[in-house]
Amino acid sequence: MERRSTKQTPIIAASILSADFAELKREVTSVVDAGAEWIHFDVMDNHYVPNLTVGPLVCAAIRPHVPNPIDVHLMVKPVDRLVGDFAEAGANIISFHPEASDHVDRTIELIHTHGCQAGLVLNPATPICVLDHVLDKLDLVLVMSVNPGFAAQKFIPEALRKLSTIRARIDALAPGRSIRLEIDGGVKPDNIGAIARAGADTFVSGSAIFGAPNYRAVISEMLEAVGEAGPKP
Length: 233
Ligand code: DX5
Ligand code: ZN
Description:
This protein has 233 residues and is α/β, with parallel strands linked by helices. It contains 8 helices and 8 strands; from the N terminus they run βαβαβαβαββαβαβαα.
């Protein structure tokens, strides 16, 4: 018998890494008005990744201006001591890299204890087996289609195969368990259809949105391409 896909309603998560930081309040409200369901918030520490971005203060500053979920992507090591700070700053989803945490299961629990959803992030070279023993505790799996650290890099096509395999694993879990499958890096209108067909239902996009003259037009184009890709992976 064919198993039903667990793919959920598509969501565009706009990565503010490519936004105009001097105009952050206007940028987050514009992108949400244009159809981005989530704000993707990239946190880099110049230690786990070779770049330095923003922390809980900036998350707290944008929180009152958008009702939408803030999807925090922690590219920091260590992870745990920032979890409470981001929860307090208004994060809804907190994702982290298993290589940056000494105790992955404990970090997932810590995120849940703070009332947030928990995501695990797989770098291009991270094997899928890191999901063993923890997949059913996660709310989200984030597949990196670039090496983390910078916006506007080129999509690594191997991510498609990874998405299909992880989608099959999510489908195989007990029914009723909803886990989003998110992709991050190099997502654009011309590849998002293939990414959706591979099994992603949540799409991070930074430079393709913030670099476009019309946010609504590019987000609509992306959602249309996802719609055409159909509900099944
Ligand atoms: C990369 C970040 C991404 C990045 C995506 O380390 O995690 O979220 O901002 O940017 P684009 O869409 O430009 O690849
Ligand atoms: Zn990210």
